[in-house]
Fold:
Amino acid sequence: MIEFECSSEHNVDVEMLRENTFSMSGVNFELSPLVRMTFPRRYSDMSILEWPKNQHVFTSVLLLFGVIPFDYHKFIFVALEKDGFEECSSTLMNKEWCHKRTIVASGGTSLVIDKVSYQPRLPFVGLLMKPIYKFTFERRHKRLDLKY
Structure:
């Protein structure tokens, strides 16, 4: 498994941050305009914490610049807690994609921690993708500051 972690502090209430990031609308805000993930309409603003656990929820198509399909993501959540979630899904490029997001209060600010581990279907592709994935998550964290 290949792993990386990304964390950042934000001057926003922890509950507001959870409310606005634990949904597909929030995910797409963080990813835009580079990537957009498709999803069934009912999941647009539904908190990820309300999604079914330990089962395939839906398959999302990942769209580069919102239009060019380049991967798919089969969502399966294994942990749903008030302060975060953990998904262990699969994608076209990765046999396993595990993403754990935690948001906690930290002395008047909110700390967002993303831990990602993945097992690529082709090892050399996984190593090539690591800097791209890490850049994407670092950028997602920076996008949070644009919303608040």
User: Anything to note?
Assistant: The two ends are 34 Å apart (CA to CA). The chain has one domain: 2-147. Helices lie at 14-21, 24-31, 123-147.
